[in-house]
Design brief:
By secondary structure, this protein is mainly β. It has no helices and 7 strands. Strands 1-2-7-6 form a 4-stranded antiparallel beta sheet, with no helix packed on it. It starts with 8 loop residues before the first strand and ends in a 16-residue tail after the last strand.
Length: about 120
């Protein structure tokens, strides 16, 4: 979903028991996140604002400008079966305009099987 013309690019992957989400949002940018669950999905919701720079004071003063500003919203559905994210606050790192969110992954529990023929 695009809001006000700005949409950050992102990628995600798994490395060393971590689910890593990288979001490109350079400049004067904020980010908020929430984790929710819907049926068999874990949903990572991200929202924030990419604010315009202080200079030039008015966007109309630019000779050329193709930069985008405004609020944004990202909705990332993941199959809970494949990515069991722990219900903990992730480590968030900002490096040169890239936000890196590192979520810990939980191990899937052993499957419990009922055997009616098992003698106690």
């Amino acid at each position: 979903m695009r809001n006000n013309g700005f949409q950050p690019t992102y990628n995600y992957y798994v490395k060393d028991e971590l689910f890593i989400l990288r979001i490109e949002c350079p400049g004067n940018c904020s980010i908020n996140f929430n984790i929710g669950y819907l049926k068999e999905y874990t949903i990572i919701e991200l929202e924030g604002i990419k604010k315009k720079d202080k200079e030039p004071e008015n966007l109309e003063d630019n000779i050329f400008n193709n930069r985008e500003f405004g609020s944004y919203y990202l909705y990332i559905p993941l199959e809970t079966e494949d990515y069991l994210i722990k219900n903990e606050y992730p480590e968030i790192i900002e490096k040169k305009g890239v936000f890196i969110l590192q979520f810990k992954l939980d191990k899937k529990s052993e499957e419990n099987v009922f055997d009616p023929h098992y003698d106690i």
